[in-house]
Structure formats: C-alpha cells, structure tokens
Model the fold of this input.
Amino acid sequence: MGLVLGSGLGAVHEKITSPVDLPYPEIPGLPRSTVEGHGGFLRFGQLSGRPVLAFSGRVHLYEGLSAAEACLPVRLLSLLGVRTLILTNAAGALNPLFSAGTLMLITDHINLTGQSPLTGANVEAWGPRFPDLSQAWSPELAALAQSQARALGLALERGVYIQVPGPQLETAAETRAYRQLGADAIGMSTAIEAIAARHMGMKLLGISCLTNKNLPDCMAATSHQEVLAMAGKASADLARLIEAVAGALPDPG
Ligand code: HPA
Done:
C-alpha cells in the first residue's frame, strides 16, 4: 500500500510501526518540497500489519515543476510495487453543506491545471498512451472507507475534488465558477497524481481534509497557517480512518 500525505497531515505517519525513513534529498532524482508543513521524507513500515510506503510532503506545480516532475513520487511508489494508493490532501470546501475540519472521500476529480503528467512521449512500460479515467477513483475502496468511517463514528462526506495550479487562493468569482463546474472541494495537488497513478494501474482512494470553507457569498481570508492548523486538528481522524482501511484491505491480487 502507498500513501501520500498532504499539508499538516503527518499524524498518519505515527501509526506506522517499524518505521524506516528516507529523507527526500537521499532519493536520487526526486524534486524537493519547499513548502512549510510538507515534511519531506519517505517512510517504510507496517500499517495494521500491511507493508506501507508513505510520502510525507509532496511537491506542487506552483513550486515551478512540470506535472511529470510533481508526480515522480507517485511513479516511484508504483515502481516499488504499490498496487493500492491512498492520496490525501488539505482542501477548501466549496460545497456549502460541508464543514471545516471534516474529511471528504474523493469520488471523482476535475483537473483544472491545464497540465498533465502524461504530456510528452509515453513510457509504454508504465501504461497506455490514452488511459481511461471513467472510473479514476476505486468504488470498492470508497465503499470500504465509508464502512470503516461508519464503524469508527467518523463523518465522511463524499464529493468531487478540483485541482487548480495555485499558489494564490481563489477570488469569489473563481470560487463561484468552480462550484458551478461541479466541484465540492478545491486544492492544488491531487488530480495530476491520480492521473499518473491510474496510468500505472494503481487502485486509488482519496481523502480530503476540509481545512476551510470557500464560499463565494461569504468569502473569508484564508492563510496557509490556518490551513495547516485545521489539517493538524483533523489529522488524528484521518490517521484512524487510514489505519482502519489498511486493516480491512483485501489482499492484492
Ligand atoms: N483553495 C485552494 N487550495 C486549498 C484551499 C482553498 O481554499 N484550502 C486548502 N487548500
């Protein structure tokens, strides 16, 4: 199982037993994360008895990378044998019914970055030129996460995640437009990673930690510090959920 942990969501790492950490700079060819709250290491260990490789800290398009470069950690996880990948992030809630501090299951995504990790020559050994994304996020893993959340008594919303390039946060007009496009949560990372992961055939589960409300008719200023603080609060819930999901995963075929 593979894991990518977003801004402020490092609590999940503490659940990993027999950990061995590899700092980002020791992994040849990987771009380094320059953003506060993105720890920057790969942890190998066990989660609920299952071998896990977990990246803490990811790299983003707004750091000046191409989508292909930003997705190298995901490519690496697949090449190391990961078949089930859990992507997490901190995201703003566009759906007015969703509260800050709540977790949201990603049922689908909109890639609004104008970039793709698949741009350029296709690496046939990794996947097809035109991968199908009609079911990008695994319905089986989503059902598993929902049943585990219910058993733990955790609220888990469901919705569509939209990725924008950032790093600036949204204007009210943009927020209104993204909601009308059908998105429930907004962030700056996960859609391109999902594309790279599906290209390589990994099964995907996505959980957003909703760190702030992002509503056009009552826009409130949002800071990165606030996002980190709220992610820190919700990350204990996220850690419990991911630990339970890891324990309930079917053995990879
Ligand atoms: N917008 C974009 N990215 C984010 C937000 C937001 O409101 N919150 C956390 N990441």
